[in-house]
Structure formats: structure tokens, C-alpha cells
Design a protein that fits this description.
single chain, about 525 residues, alpha+beta, FAD/NAD(P)-binding domain, Glutaredoxin, 7-stranded mixed β-sheet, 24 strands
């Protein structure tokens, strides 16, 4: 074995690429291993939300870099008569994360932007056409058996930690002996990706995304971004993959929506939509992220989003452990924080899936009567859960929730989003910075390079952060590198108290423990 990396990332889809960017941004010596030679030029995920947009912001993907991305224009549920059962309205303004609530995007374009960013990270090496064919976990590192598919040879490479981002059929999950829980949702769907050269309304296509809850055949219509659109057609009993993939059959299905001659089909595939989550997300040194750790029906659009949250949650913890700034015990918080969040989203997606996938005509009629009889046709979107409990949260009521990102005044006097002013890492936001911290707090602040930021009229001219502190009933809020609140405190010693509590948690002696 000729080398030992800090982190080996296996798989170079969106999750692996974001993970590599976050590690590389922080100077962690990383290698990415990917068996394919290039980006798959076929869209799979099509949606991300404001939280994910903030993660992309943190690795330098500005709006002008994110091509083929657009805010979503609504999400409606229709019955078989194309009557609106209910809709989720999408606000036009920005949320507490500093971005629009939801976006649609073309995955190959996003992946290119992510890979271009990785290429600028000096501490990251990407090895395409390299397949991990085995691993051995040892006391202080993992030995990967990596097959170079071009040279035709296999060699051993060491890494202190391994993250498997290698998808639903994860080899890393199998090599590590990690099993999945079946959460009991399995449906076959035909996915059709296409491009159009006219506006959707000129072709008679809907402007918003639509779930057609038709018992004869449930269908999803998804305007992606730019010229890209998608249909998903549920398979009926007895229909085969081979039958559904026939060009003539695809044309018949599209004809119910528009003239199929106005559409260029670029991909067809039959997928089984599953609901699965790992029983254990990691061994001591091998971790799962993205589809290797969980899979969910697509009706909430949170599959890729969940994988990118995994990356944001795990990378800063690995960095601190590798640098000696934290005990390895903090890595137990990865599953305890991410697993409850993912399972809650899977449950919401299953509930929506049961509404959409009803194929019994009598049950569908009862469902339609129920929704059409309600006075409220625009309910609030399903509430996104916070992260689960972990050692890296205090006992505060807002601990584990996303911190605010609003516009603040930067050093050049202009208004910018918070993360663009402060950069990555821990941030302690408070009404008044004390003249000195306790000795312990000062050591913690220096060890983790925590920014201490006074919330005053100069920094916070709109008063957004002053009002946030008021709502939280505190004088200081400590935010983690993944934008999650660690805790709050009040009084003259608020800053020292929070930093001392964080220091204890990083040493593995905090009060909270993982379930």
C-alpha cells in the first residue's frame, strides 16, 4: 500500500461531488473513485430546495454558474378529470435561507458545475474509471482494493475514512456489511425525459408541475428547467418493461398531453420507486451517504436533497476529527441526526405516493370527493423536519434547526448574504461581544476558528438578525458549519457558555448523547 488518504469518496454523482467540494474547500486530503468515465448525460433528480441552494452557495456555485436551473412555478394534484384536488403554491420571495423555496434543475448541468469546482480544489484528486472491488477495515484506516479499469490492475489504497456515495446498489454498503430497512413502497414507473423548442403553454402543456392522480394511470408531469421536461407514467398490472419502452408506446402516452411530434425524447427508463433506509449508516470508519443510505419515492422531490444534507452534516465532523479538533465520538451523531430526518421525509413521500398511486376506481372516487369537498385547496407544504438529536446540539429549543441567512453588510459596505460575508465554519452571532471570553471558551474559539459576530445596525441594517434573536429569546446563537443551530444562550456570559458547551461536545463529554 503506497498511500493513506484522509478521506476516500466512492461515487461521483451529485452527493460525492458535493462531499468532495466541501472536504476540498477545507483542505482535507481526499480522493474520489468513480467507475464511469464521464457524467451520465441523463437527468435523474430534478428538484432541490432552499437549504440545498445554500449548500451549493457555500461551495461557490453562484447563480451564473448554475445553468439550466429555475425556480419552480407551482405543484398541483389533479384527479382523472383534471380537476385540481389541491396545490402547493410556491412563494416568489426568498425564505429564511436567503433563496427561493424550490428550484427545478437539469442534473447533468449541475454535475458539470460541481466537477468544475472540484477541479479547483488542490487537496482533491479524482480517479475516474476506478472501481472499488473490496475493502478491509483496520484499527486506524481502511484498505480499499481499487481496480484501475484502464490499466487493468488492482492495488491497495488506504484511507482513514471512507464515504460510500455509490448509489442504490452501493458496493461500499455491501462490502461494509450494512443492511437496509424495507419501508414498504415499491411501484414501477416509466420515466420519459424530453426537450421542447416552444414554450409549454404553446404546446398545451401545464405551467406548474402536476401529479395526475388518475386511477386509469397515475402520471407525473415535471417541467424541469430550460427546454427540459419529464413525464413519469405508473405501470399498470401486467405491463412489462419491454412493452413500455417501445417508441410507439411512449408516443401514445405523450399524446394524452401534447402532440408527440413536438417533443424530442432523450431518454426512457423503467424504475422501481422504493422506500428504504439503512439500519446502520456506518461502521467505525466507513460511512454511507445519499442513495447508498436511503431511497424514497420521488413525489416530495427530496431524494438528492437528502443526500446533499448527508454530505453537509458529515464533512465538517470528519474534518474536525482528522485535525484533532474533536473526538471520534462525535461521528456517532451522523446517523442520530440524519436518520430521523430521512425517515420522516420518506414517510411524507409515501403518504403523497398513496394519494397519487391509487388505481382502484372506487377508492379514487372517495379520495376525489374528500379533497373536492374541502374549502382549503392550497394547504401549507409538508413541514420539513429538523435533524435528529445528537451530541453536537445543546438543549436549546432551536438547536438542530436551520440558522437564518439574511442580507448583511460586508466589509466593502455592500449588502450580501451572510455566508458570503462570513465564509464557512462556526459562527457565534450575538447582540454584544464581550470584552473577553473565559480561557476555556477562547481556546475553543481558536481551535475551531469560530467567528464572533456582533449583531448591530451596521452589520444587520434590516434588523433580521435582531428579530431572530428576539424570536429565539436569547442574546447569542451558535451556528454549526452545516448551518444548523448548535444552541442559544442569554446574559453577560452567553458567548463563553456556548463555546464551553460546544468544546465539551467536541471532546465527547457533552450532556446530550445519541439515542
Amino acid at each position: 500500500m503506497t498511500e493513506i488518504l484522509d478521506v476516500a469518496v466512492v461515487g461521483y454523482g451529485p452527493v460525492g461531488a458535493v462531499l468532495a467540494n466541501l472536504l476540498g474547500r477545507d483542505g482535507v486530503r481526499t480522493a474520489v473513485f468513480e467507475r464511469d468515465a464521464d457524467i451520465q448525460q441523463l437527468p435523474r433528480a430534478v428538484h432541490f430546495d432552499h437549504e440545498i441552494r445554500r449548500i451549493l452557495q457555500s461551495i461557490g456555485l453562484s447563480e451564473d454558474v448554475l445553468t439550466d436551473t429555475a425556480p419552480i412555478e407551482g405543484y398541483e394534484f389533479w384527479n382523472g378529470k383534471r380537476e385540481t384536488l389541491f396545490r402547493f403554491g410556491i412563494g416568489q420571495g426568498v425564505t429564511h435561507q436567503g433563496w427561493r423555496q424550490d428550484y427545478m434543475f437539469h442534473q447533468p448541468s449541475l454535475e458539470k458545475s460541481l466537477r468544475d469546482a472540484v477541479a479547483r480544489r488542490d487537496s482533491v484528486e479524482v480517479r475516474l474509471q476506478h472501481e472499488v472491488v473490496g475493502l478491509e477495515e483496520r484499527d486506524d484506516h481502511v484498505v480499499l482494493h481499487v481496480h484501475d479499469m484502464v490499466a487493468g490492475e488492482t492495488r491497495e489504497i488506504g484511507a482513514r475514512y471512507v464515504v460510500g456515495c455509490d448509489g442504490a446498489n452501493s458496493a461500499i454498503r455491501k462490502h461494509a456489511g450494512l443492511a437496509l430497512d424495507d419501508l414498504e413502497f415499491d411501484e414501477g414507473w416509466l420515466v420519459v425525459d424530453a426537450v421542447i423548442d416552444k414554450p409549454r403553454d404553446a404546446l398545451g402543456l401545464p405551467i406548474p408541475a402536476v401529479q395526475l392522480c388518475d386511477p386509469a394511470r397515475p402520471v407525473s408531469f415535471i417541467p424541469v428547467a430550460g427546454p427540459y421536461i419529464r413525464w413519469e407514467f405508473m405501470l399498470r398490472p401486467g405491463e412489462t418493461k419491454e412493452e413500455m419502452l417501445r417508441r410507439e408506446r411512449v408516443g401514445e402516452l405523450i399524446a394524452a398531453w401534447c402532440d408527440p411530434r413536438a417533443v424530442e425524447v432523450i431518454r426512457t427508463a423503467v424504475y422501481d420507486f422504493h422506500a428504504l433506509a439503512a439500519k446502520r449508516w456506518n461502521t467505525r470508519r466507513v460511512f454511507l451517504a445519499g442513495d447508498s443510505a436511503h431511497q424514497m419515492p420521488p413525489f416530495l422531490g427530496q431524494g438528492m436533497c437528502s443526500g446533499l444534507r448527508d454530505a453537509a452534516n458529515l464533512t465538517w465532523k470528519l474534518r474536525l476529527v482528522l485535525s484533532g479538533g474533536a473526538s471520534e465520538a462525535i461521528l456517532a451523531s451522523y446517523q442520530s441526526e440524519r436518520d430521523p430526518h430521512v425517515r420522516a421525509l420518506i414517510n411524507i413521500a409515501i403518504v403523497l405516493g398513496r394519494i397519487i398511486c391509487t388505481q382502484d376506481a372506487e377508492a379514487a372516487a372517495a379520495r376525489d370527493a374528500d379533497f373536492l369537498g374541502r374549502s382549503e385547496r392550497e394547504p401549507s407544504p409538508p413541514e420539513m423536519p429538523g435533524c435528529g438529536p445528537g451530541v453536537l446540539q445543546s438543549g436549546s429549543a432551536v438547536a438542530g434547526k436551520l440558522g437564518l441567512q439574511a442580507a448583511v453588510r460586508g466589509g466593502d459596505g455592500g449588502l450580501k448574504l451572510l455566508d458570503d460575508v462570513l465564509g464557512p465554519g462556526f459562527a457565534l452571532l450575538m447582540r454584544a461581544v464581550p470584552s473577553r471570553l473565559s480561557d476555556t471558551a477562547e481556546r475553543v474559539r481558536n481551535d475551531i476558528a469560530c467567528r464572533v459576530v456582533p449583531i448591530d445596525a451596521t452589520f444587520d441594517p434590516s434588523g433580521d438578525y435582531e428579530r431572530w434573536l428576539d424570536r429565539c429569546g436569547c442574546d447569542a446563537i451558535l451556528v454549526r458549519p452545516d448551518h444548523v443551530v448548535f444552541g442559544t444562550a442569554s446574559g453577560a456570559n452567553a458567548a463563553s457558555a456556548l463555546l464551553e458547551e460546544l468544546g465539551a461536545a467536541l471532546r465527547g463529554t457533552g450532556l446530550q448523547t445519541s439515542p
